[in-house]
Amino acid sequence: xxxxxxxxxxxxxxxxxxxxxxxxxxxxxLTLIGSGFIAKWVRRLVKxxxxxxxxxxxxxxxxxWVILILGTILALDQVNFDVTGFIAGLGVAGFxxxxxxxxxxxxxxxxxxLLYRQPFHLGDYVGISDYEGRVKEINIRDTVIETLDGELxxxxxxxxxxxxxxx
Length: 167
Prior knowledge:
- The chain is α+β, with helices and mostly antiparallel strands.
- The chain has 5 helices and 5 strands; from the N terminus they run ααααββββαβ.
- The longest helix is centred in the N-terminal third of the chain and has 47 residues.
């Protein structure tokens, strides 16, 4: 086969593949644009039910990432990418990373539960573990209290969630 025939075969294959490529790009771009709008809409719905800015931001981010991941998988499927192997690889990687970062994940989940249950609020005087003071910050991974001495104590949310709280 000469060079001209090989180039013609490549060009013909490219033209047959072009609609799938365009569809994949369009799906990906629509996913990028639409994920922000949908996440903002979900955040507005959550604002009606829950009065916590950190939880609103968390719901926004999780919604956006879920939509981005699903849209990317759909776009990759359009260009005949082996999505099954890709998802299996992501699952194995997620399991490995989750196992390695289990303490951070525990603090994260405990933070979500604390933000949902709200056993105390900013400014409350609390006793957590061996520390007592005013709550300065409630973050996803930790809670910051200021003791009577003026020291800031950062307590992982897992410890806050698992131990009794004096409020």
